[in-house]
Write a structure and sequence with these properties.
The protein contains 23 helices and 18 strands. It has 541 residues and is an alpha/beta fold. The strands form six sheets. The chain has a five-stranded parallel β-sheet with strand order 13-14-17-11-18. Strands 1-2-4-3 form a four-stranded mixed β-sheet. Helix 9 packs parallel to helix 19, helix 19 packs across helix 22 and helix 21 runs parallel beside helix 23. It is elongated.
């Protein structure tokens, strides 16, 4: 039944007898196709192109297939991982589903360059195409114009695989087309100007390459409308925390909220994406590349909403910063150009928290392995929340535990000083009273605050930066130098609070953001004073 289906699908009736001497390899029976070009004593070699993913870089990989005389064997070489080595069984089963069997010869697949580690199941399709070309089933010359990625199912279907967007961008750079799974054609279309063949299965792909049938062009990917999340009108009271949240959004500053359970810290954090400006087209593509590598880009849909990631406090270091046996981006990279929310901050393992120091400073994550060095972007806005102590009720004589205030110092000491030094805004969130909940909603919601944030961001963009959190060097001196009263106040506070050089710089950045929200050209004393009010050095006793 399968053989008959293959012959009916692939055969061209205009050629006459499909078993005649002038028939193409696909027009012959499966056994005749195999005993064609690779039946003699000369070894046949065919090539196909694919990619290897190293961070957000797609490296060119040449799949070389040789079918040589000898005892039947199937080798895959070129530093394949377990998933790539197992492609032998998937390719074998997919060809069998088409009615084809492997030639009784030595089949060698070399993934070049051989010293580059190969990971992932997307090598299945290029291996199968190179093998079919070496068998004479498809045209080997035609494959030189395409980059192929995709996982093969046992019945010949082409299943989705991570990283199609990166492969499409790579194909665009080198002037080739892309062959990918049907479900990821829309994702590949974001790389404009390249032909995309999105095939549901191996048979239809071969017929398309042969010209017997034409696969439809995949539809372009869609852009989702921004998802604003909860509205700030849901937050009652907490005026200081709302103001700190607005400053954090306007300058992309890191924020730490400290308060008892139920004070609204998580709600405030979830409201932050709603007041942040939407991603630009370039930023949306950058975020989607990370999602494509992680395999979370569904249906080729790109969102203009900034990412919001909230990992559980039991997350490992590899889950947070990236890595693992098969290196994948972690939460800090999945939150690139968005928000990384760490609730119950002291409950995270200390080594895991300290692994965030370099990404917060450099905006990237370097994952070093013995055989690979991978870099992922990690330009995130850190928002953290924590209780003041383990019981959470420090300062309330009726609810505080018997170890107060000693328990507060022990609990807050779980977060290292260097990490706290990288957080610009420290705000204490007071408990919400029942009377506060009975009040009407605030007059200002997310829409009103978002407009002020957008205006402040426009002023920052005019300076040639994405946000004030990136101000450094000459740009910091040019745009964030305070007036004389402000400079004196900052110097006095820096000495009294023993601010580090990093803390001093971050105070200037926050003051510049406060000035932008006020529409001031120069940073003044009032802006410095408000920025210093959000700097918290010692645990509350």
């Amino acid at each position: 039944m399968v053989n008959g289906l293959v012959n009916r699908t692939i055969a061209d009736p205009r050629r006459g007898d499909p078993s005649g001497p002038d028939a193409s390899p696909l027009d012959r029976s499966p056994r005749q196709a195999i005993t064609g070009p690779c039946s003699g004593g000369k070894a046949m070699v065919a090539l196909a192109s694919t990619v290897a993913y190293l961070g957000l870089d797609a490296r060119a990989v040449e799949v070389q297939c040789q079918v040589a005389p000898g005892l039947p064997k199937f080798h895959v070489v070129g530093l394949p991982d377990k998933a790539v080595a197992e492609s032998r069984q998937r390719v074998h089963a997919a060809l069998a589903a088409m009615g084809l069997s492997l030639p009784p010869k030595i089949i060698t697949i070399n993934l070049s360059p051989a010293d580059l580690p190969k990971e992932g199941s997307h090598y299945d399709l290029p291996i199968a195409l190179a093998l079919l070309a070496a068998m004479g089933v498809t045209d080997a010359e035609q494959l030189t114009d395409w980059v192929a990625v995709g996982e093969l199912a046992l019945d010949g279907r082409i299943a989705a695989s991570p990283g199609v967007l990166l492969a499409a961008l790579h194909a665009s750079e080198i002037g080739k087309g892309l062959i990918c799974p049907a479900g990821q054609g829309s994702e590949a279309r974001w790389a404009s100007g390249i032909p995309v063949v999105a095939a549901p299965n191996l048979i239809s792909l071969l017929n398309h390459l042969k010209g017997v049938q034409r696969l439809p062009d995949p539809p372009p990917g869609e852009v989702d409308d921004p998802d604003h999340g909860p509205d700030l009108r849901l937050v009652k009271g907490q005026e200081t925390a709302r103001r700190a949240l607005e400053i954090a959004a306007a300058g992309s500053h890191n924020l730490l909220m400290i308060g008892p359970p139920g004070a609204g810290k998580s709600l405030l954090a979830s409201c932050l994406p709603g007041i942040l400006p939407p991603l630009t087209s370039a930023e949306a593509l950058e975020v989607s590349m990370v999602a494509s590598v992680a395999g979370t880009l569904e249906g080729g849909r790109i969102s203009r909403t900034r990412p919001f990631r909230a990992p559980h406090h039991s997350a490992s270091m590899a889950a947070l910063t990236g890595g693992g046996l098969r290196v994948r981006p972690g939460e800090v990279s999945l939150a690139h150009l968005g928000v990384l929310f760490l609730d119950e901050l002291p409950e995270f393992q200390r080594a895991v928290l300290d692994s965030l120091r370099q990404p917060l400073e450099a905006g990237k994550v370097d994952v070093a392995r013995a055989n690979a060095h991978v870099t992922y972007p990690a330009r995130v806005q850190l928002v953290a929340a924590m209780n003041p102590c383990r019981c959470g009720h420090l300062g309330d004589p009726a609810l505080a535990c018997s170890r107060a205030p000693r328990c507060a110092a022990d609990y807050q000491a779980r977060v290292s000083g260097p990490l706290l030094d990288r957080i610009d805004l420290h705000v204490e969130v007071d408990p919400v009273q029942a009377a506060d909940l009975a009040l009407p909603p605030p007059a200002e919601g997310s829409a009103e605050v978002a407009r002020r944030v957008a205006e402040a961001r426009e002023r920052q963009t005019a300076r040639g930066i994405r946000s004030n959190a990136e101000l450094d060097g000459e740009a910091l001196e040019t745009h964030a130098t305070p007036d004389e009263p402000g400079r004196k106040l900052l110097l006095q506070a820096a000495e009294a609070m023993r601010l580090s050089a990093r803390g001093y710089t971050r105070m200037l950045r926050v003051a510049r953001t406060i000035a932008d929200l006020a529409g001031a050209e120069q940073v003044g004393r009032i802006h410095i004073a408000e920025a210093l009010s959000y700097r918290r050095q010692a645990p509350r006793a």
